[in-house]
Amino acid sequence: MKSASSTTLTKPPPETGPGSSLQQGKWNRFLEEHAMHVLLGMSALYIWLFINDTAGTRHLGRLAVLGALLFPVMLHSGRYWLAVSGVLIAGLLPALHKIDNHIFLAAYWTFAVAASLFASAPQIALRTNARLLLGLCFLFATLWKLISLEFMRGAFFQMTFLVDARFADFAMYVAGVSGEALATNMERYSGLRDPTSSLMQISLQSAPRVAVLALATAYWTVWIEAVIAVAFLWRGDRGPARIRNPALLVFMVSAYGVAPVPGFAALLAILGFANCRREETRARWLYLLAFLLVPYSDVPLRLFLQLGWLG
């Protein structure tokens, strides 16, 4: 009679390298536990980097951020953010006609942060305020575009491609407008906007693809902004709410990868981060990465253009 044989199995040691699941879980737990502090830090850093429209607002805002860096506990103070909000609003009032749209949204957000920190459940309040700000922002943006005949006909983007320096690379390499034509268009447009100029109208040099791309861009913009509005205004976490993060991230890549507007992109990343639930760690990492890479948002497009991949 044969004796039974046995096999011994040895448990392998846990992976501990930088890319191991153990390390990834450690970083994910860190972000979960410190999400509030990261969010408030992103918001403060935003003020330092992007609020520079008026000298007074810029210096007072940076002074407030410097105080928070020296005394981090200030970031969790509702009174601190109320003061920051007051500084931003004071800087907006003297120059309402020339302030970029994202500065208004930043002022709303700082006030929302202050109000949320006074609430009994600050994290829930921050998430709700971020969700409503995003939803309402994209809702009104969509409605304005739908009632604007010039936008829906593609006229807005057609002019933008031809005179806006932020779209210069896209206009040259994708739309097929020559660099000389763009330079001429920008010079003429600058003269038209000059109050001392006698110009009453100008003609812009274009290319065959411009009208088609302008119309396609207009319809894509309306569609993706409407999707974002519905997703973020939908109550609860079911139905359209499930695509909140994918829709917002796709919008950020498609919009700011072509026309870098770092102030708006960074603010959307902050609001997206604030809206994430505790278990949405991957989305939080993506928003944080987007916030950190905003100053370089046009690098991929420029690289493709230089390599001739889109030409």
Characterise this structure.
- With 311 residues, the chain is mainly α.
- The chain is built from 15 helices and no strands.
- α2 runs antiparallel to α3 and α5 packs antiparallel against α6.
- The chain is globular.
- The N and C termini lie far apart (79 Å).
- The model is unreliable at 299-311 (pLDDT under 50).
Largest sheet: none
Task: Give me the Rg, rounded.
Answer: 24 Å
Shape: globular
| Secondary-structure content class | mainly alpha
Oligomerization state: single chain
Low-confidence stretches: 299-311
H-E string: HHHHHHHHHHHHHHH
Question: What's the topology here?
Answer:
Blueprint: H1 21-33, H2 35-50, H3 55-70, H4 78-92, H5 101-117, H6 122-146, H7 149-152, H8 155-163, H9 168-173, H10 179-193, H11 208-233, H12 244-256, H13 262-275, H14 281-293, H15 299-307
Helix pairs in contact: 2-3, 2-5, 2-13, 3-4, 4-5, 5-6, 5-13, 6-11, 6-13, 8-11, 11-12, 12-13, 13-14
Notable characteristics:
single chain, mainly alpha, 15 helices, 0% strand
Give a quick precis of the structure.
68% of the residues lie in helices and 0% in strands. The protein is built from 15 helices and no strands.
